Amino acid sequence: xxxxxxxxxxxxxxxxxxxxxxxxxxxxxxxxxxxxxxxxxxxxxxxxxxxxxxxxxxxxxxxxxxxxxxxxxxxxxxxxxxxxxxxxxxxxxxxxxxxxxxxxxxxxxxxxxxxxxxxxxxxxxxxxxxxxxxxxxxxxxxxxxxxxxxxxxxxxxxxxxxxxxxxxxxxxxxxxxxxxxxxxxxxxxxxxxxxxxxxxxxxxxxxxxxxxxxxxxxxxxxxxxxxxxxxxxxxxxxxxxxxxxxxxxxxxxxxxxxxxxxxxxxxxxxxxxxxxxxxxxxxx
Length: 284
What we know:
- Helices cover 74% and strands 0% of the residues.
- By secondary structure, it is mainly α.
């Protein structure tokens, strides 16, 4: 009986994970979940149109119930089958493996899976008003993040941020230093002329953010000659500083795409194994 249970668990794990080459059941499940996620996002957007929501309220409610049921079953099955993965397996607790399942539940994708169903169950636990209900409906957009498991584009984006995190952190830290410094100087220069806009450093920071990001809303700007001179310098610095993250990310994407192509070349299209590994197996 245990062997049958392990076989079922392993097969469910294979279906729930991103489909491997030739696994039609897993591929069908991936397509179904991706379609359901997209339809959920469309439903959340359409629900904000009051006339549509009032006209199709029953349909939206039934669709939400169906979606939550599917996502809840998926989350429970992932929690049950996660111990097939060696990362969440524990030899000390073979049958229950609570520690392994807690480790799985703490992973980013598992948290996203939980956030996808949590807005439905929260009102049953916490008393809420209408504003809270509207917010919960918007929180359902977290279901879009479930696409990260199936989308190569999102995986590539995640890999780029992971590889370039140190460079991005240094750039953002530099921007923060310049923002504080420029806002402090502008407060000192403009606070007497415009106390309502530059009456404190936090107030001046709004001008600093808008200027450094080169958005320039025009609602807050310096009027003294020295303030305008400083504003021009900060605006020019903003153009240069915000070009840095773009260059870092562009370089990261180029490296990741190159690595991805090299990985595809090394993988056999028939069995999905590494060609070097397959060759070494044949030699043995």
